[in-house]
């Protein structure tokens, strides 16, 4: 037995208090320079970069549940940048680069694991789309290739090359594709932010936003009123509901997305495999479990319930891709909420209310953008200027019909 | 599977239906501003509560209206659109002038 453990065993004080990664809960102050609504990955990442790069530490992150307990814990932890538009590829590539250095930066293992991501084409149209994505990605320095069925067989020998009578014609092989532990990303950012003086208030629900003369001046919470210089809203899955408190209407529709995980087995699947035509993506975690996700539910809903019919069709497609999986057992299944925009790009930046910044519309692409999102939102808050990287994602793009059409690039088609 | 009560065909499996979005009033396409049109096509309330929305029963090609709670997924009522739309909606676009109009994007 290590002596330190023995020491803790004989200690009268609860050792957790001295060694905690996060400080103990404190009272809410009456004023903060920045209030961040939502203590998920995006919220704490924004707080972290505000403190680290801009020296702004009078910041409160208000979370109605617990740290990283919302959609940060419900996504399937895919990291990739093989998108379709130049705006998207530039943005997500920066995110992948930041992810690669996070464990070192935090001194905390986020279990980042670069596996490569393979997207399957089952039609000539999909092959043409992949060709375009390959070239766009290469142009911006990404590592993406179009590969043929023989190469796919070598990469994933267990894959059925003719699933559901839709032969695999080609694959989009994204070498930078990766996965990481999503909880750890939120924990790492929260630890780094609180060490620099940011306050994280869990079980603190924002119930109202005070707007005076078109400018946000404070928020109401279940623990009292707080005045603030500015507000960042980072509440994936509840964007329209929270924005409505500030009187903002958004171009978002919220759908559930269902996923599940099997019992652990020996490692056999290195890359992350997805098939847009079969509405299914599969990956094996470091523990050996297989994680599946599909497309969003067919109609809008604010509920994370599961439905038999969607689970059934998702599993049927997964078994088509990897037939031997029919004998495996499911361990868990769950749903998350996806704030879908009509062009499948996020909504970031300014809002119609002064000093109220939006980080919303994260549909099914929120986790993979956590670091770059935190960094650019922090820059926006600190300088008041919209960083070039997120300019195309302004909400006002819908008013001028300048959408950033990322529709062809979702891992499971929607 | 969830059962939806179609006003024309009775209770059917939800897989036979296609969601058509929240019912909203269309501004006059010939006279509204770009912002008003964007508001109509892209923006939505998207709140938790009872909403009125379009549904299509795909096998019979029949559109109807449902009142559904977006938190509990409970369908309170389904009815024929004739309850709301008492006369035909005309979509007459301006034939020629729309092309000469400058796009203000």
Automatic annotation (TrEMBL), chain A:
SUPFAM superfamilies: FAD-linked reductases, C-terminal domain (SSF54373), FAD/NAD(P)-binding domain (SSF51905). InterPro entries: FAD-dep_OxRdtase (IPR006076), FAD/NAD-bd_sf (IPR036188), Rhodanese-like_dom (IPR001763). The keyword Oxidoreductase applies. GO terms for molecular function: oxidoreductase activity. Transmembrane segments: none annotated. Keywords: Oxidoreductase. It comes from the Bacteria. One of its GO terms (cellular component) is cytoplasm. Residues 34-78 form the Rhodanese domain. This is N-methylglutamate dehydrogenase subunit A. It comes from Amphritea atlantica.
TrEMBL record, chain B:
It comes from the Bacteria. InterPro entries: SoxD (IPR006279), SoxD_sf (IPR038561). GO terms for biological process: tetrahydrofolate metabolic process. GO terms for molecular function: sarcosine oxidase activity. Gene3D superfamilies: Folate-binding superfamily. This is N-methylglutamate dehydrogenase subunit B. It comes from Amphritea atlantica.
């Amino acid at each position: 037995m290590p002596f330190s453990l023995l020491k803790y065993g004989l200690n009268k004080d609860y050792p957790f208090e001295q060694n905690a990664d996060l400080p103990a809960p404190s009272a809410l102050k009456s004023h903060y320079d920045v209030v961040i609504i939502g203590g998920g990955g995006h919220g704490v990442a924004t707080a972290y970069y505000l403190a680290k790069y801009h020296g702004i530490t009078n910041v409160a992150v208000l979370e109605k549940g617990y740290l990283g307990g919302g959609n940060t814990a419900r996504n399937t932890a895919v990291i990739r940048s093989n998108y379709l538009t130049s705006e998207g590829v530039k943005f997500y590539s920066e995110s992948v680069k930041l992810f690669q250095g996070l464990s070192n930066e935090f001194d905390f293992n986020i279990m980042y694991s670069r596996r490569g991501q393979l997207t399957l084409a089952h039609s000539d149209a999909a092959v043409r789309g992949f060709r375009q994505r390959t070239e766009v990605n290469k142009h911006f320095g990404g590592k993406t290739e179009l590969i043929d069925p023989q190469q796919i067989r070598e990469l994933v020998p267990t894959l059925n090359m003719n699933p559901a009578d839709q032969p695999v014609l080609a694959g989009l092989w994204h070498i930078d594709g990766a996965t990481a532990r999503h909880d750890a990303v939120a924990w790492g950012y929260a630890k780094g932010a609180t060490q620099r003086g940011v306050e994280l208030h869990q079980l603190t629900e924002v119930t109202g936003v005070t707007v005076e003369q078109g400018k946000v001046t404070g928020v109401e919470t279940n623990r009292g009123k707080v005045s603030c210089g500015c507000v960042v809203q980072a509440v994936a899955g509840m964007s329209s509901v929270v924005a409505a408190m500030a009187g903002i209407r958004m171009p978002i529709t919220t759908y559930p997305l269902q996923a599940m995980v099997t019992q652990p087995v020996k490692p056999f699947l290195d890359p992350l495999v997805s098939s847009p035509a079969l509405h299914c993506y599969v990956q094996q975690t470091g523990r050996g479990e297989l994680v599946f996700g599909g497309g969003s539910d067919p109609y809008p809903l604010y509920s994370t319930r599961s439905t038999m019919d969607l689970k059934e069709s998702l599993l049927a497609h997964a078994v088509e891709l990897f037939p031997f999986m029919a004998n495996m057992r499911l361990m868990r299944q769950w749903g998350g909420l996806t704030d879908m925009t009509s062009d499948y790009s996020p909504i970031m930046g300014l809002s119609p209310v002064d000093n109220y910044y939006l980080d919303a519309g994260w549909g099914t692409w929120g986790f993979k953008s956590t670091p770059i999102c935190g960094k650019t939102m922090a820059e926006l808050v600190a300088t008041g200027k919209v960083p070039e990287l997120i300019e195309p994602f302004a909400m006002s793009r819908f008013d001028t019909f300048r959408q950033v059409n990322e529709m062809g690039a979702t891992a499971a088609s929607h | 599977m969830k059962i939806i009560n179609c006003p024309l065909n009775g209770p059917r499996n939800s897989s036979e239906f296609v969601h058509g979005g929240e019912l909203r009033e269309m501004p006059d396409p010939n006279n509204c501003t770009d912002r008003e049109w964007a508001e109509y096509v892209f923006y939505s309330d998207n709140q938790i509560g009872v909403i009125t929305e379009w549904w299509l029963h795909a096998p019979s090609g029949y559109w109807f209206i449902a009142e559904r709670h977006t938190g509990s997924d409970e369908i309170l009522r389904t009815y024929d659109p004739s309850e709301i739309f008492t006369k035909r909606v005309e979509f007459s676009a301006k034939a020629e002038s729309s092309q000469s109009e400058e796009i203000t994007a």
